[in-house]
Amino acid sequence: MSVGESTSASTSASPTGAGPRPGREAARGGAGVLDWVLLALAACAVGALVALRLLVVGSFVQMYRDFGSPESLPVVTRVVVTPWATIVATLVVAVLSLVGVGVRAATGARIGTAMSIVAVVVGVASIAAVVWGLYAPIFELAGRIR
Fold it and tell me: Pick from 32, 60, 120, 125: most CB atoms within 10 A?
């Protein structure tokens, strides 16, 4: 190569000559490993929410019938045992994660990864809220025994 020639290879190589320089060129690609891991985590959260609803919530509802009227239960428990709460949480997690990966894959925008992160956080928080809501009457009853 002569002194006057310039090639794009010389601008995209790293200073060590080991390969492409990390930067905007590498970030513009589609969905990366992180996006697919976040999608898998969101799918696990959706599966856990559905499993809790189908396998666990029903037995707690039967147990709480012995506690008296539903109004005597804590608010978080009343919300958790309604079917719409699980449906809403599951849809929010699923839609956020799928749209996030779709945006990242189509445009490469980092907002897609951010949406997937929010989906996982909402999923984990929803699982924690379900567990807390199911056990809240038991904790409240135990607090009165002292």
Answer: 120
The domain segmentation of the chain, as residue ranges, is 30-145
Closest CA to 107 of 3, 51, 35, 19: 35
DSSP H helical ranges for the chain: 8-12, 24-27, 33-51, 58-64, 75-80, 83-107, 110-145
* 46 burial level (CB within 10 Å; 0-12, 13-18, 19+): buried
Torsion, Cα 96 98 104 109, to 10 degrees, reads -20
pLDDT digits (tens, 9 = 90+) for 14-62: 455 555 545 444 445 688 899 999 999 999 999 999 999 999 998 998 8
Contact 125, 144 (CB under 8 A): no
Pick from 3, 8, 127: which is nearest to 57 by CA? 127
> The whole model's pTM is what?
0.75
CA 15 to chain centre: 38
Residue 135 tokens read as 């056990």
pLDDT one-digit tens code per residue, 80-103: 999 899 999 999 999 999 999 999
